[in-house]
Amino acid sequence: MNSGYEGFEASWHDLFWEAEEAPSELPLIKKFLEARKGRSLYIGSGSGRLLGPLAAAGHDVLGLECSSEMAKLSQENFPDAKVLEEEWQEHEGEYDAILIPAFTFQLFLDPQKQLTRLSEQANSLYLTLFFPWAEISGDLPQNEWYFDRDVVLPIGGTGELETQHKIKEQIGSLVRKHRYTMRDASGNVIRREETVQRLRFFTDAALKNLLKKSGWKI
Could you give the count of Cα atoms lying within 13 Å of 17 in the half-sphere of its Cβ? Predict the structure, then answer.
């Protein structure tokens, strides 16, 4: 079981995202960058799904991606977008703004320490998070595998995603396991892979307090 974006989790990432029809953050990021003409750093730029269009729109954005498979996808899909395969904690540089879309921030091991470091590299921060309402309310069963979604694969057959989670609301901890299954056109299992993500989540008040302690002005 891996804990990063590799294998099916990397190669199927955009397929699941498109199938979910989730609203794109692209317009929000573009609006944020309108008043910031200098260079921006995009942490966790992934397959280039947002980085590529930002570069095409003329924004000077450098992507950082620690997954070699995701960085490769970004380079293949958006060759004009700048991306480095590197752990962001090791990256040095000064920027006009830092972008952390999706829930990348919630994977940080030490949020206050890492946000403090970022506050020394830029003056502006774009940050989005999710709050696990369905897990907290019990709409999704804890410690049980449940069907999440499936997609038709470009090579034929289907890709299925099942999820299992464990949540500790009092400490803001969510562990999610994902099981990816590739099936042929007849429904036979060809291959399975499992991954795990360990995330933190925050109330609005806790997040504001964390940002202030880390040197960011709200």
Answer: 15
